[in-house]
Specification:
1 helix; alpha+beta; 5-stranded antiparallel beta sheet
């Protein structure tokens, strides 16, 4: 089981980046995934190919990114 971030959806494939090493990508066809995912979601990909959305970790990470964006906006004002 490994943690990945959904980087983008490209030509019918989810492109996941490993949380441990973002140079490692994993492509999975959108048609093979039975849950709804959006860019930035953090998931576990189990050895059997099952994908589990890590909702709390995703929310925490997105909140941190939003806070950084707001800080940058304030610094550029």
């Amino acid at each position: 089981m490994s943690n990945y971030t959904l980087d983008r959806i490209d030509d019918g494939f989810y492109v996941f980046l490993s949380k441990d090493d973002e140079s490692q990508q994993r492509l999975i066809a959108v048609s093979e995934v039975n849950i709804s995912l959006t860019e930035g979601d953090i998931v576990n990909i189990h050895e059997d190919g099952t994908i589990e959305l890590l909702e709390e970790e995703t929310k925490i990470t997105k909140d941190k990114v939003d806070a950084l964006i707001e800080k940058l906006k304030k610094n550029n004002s």
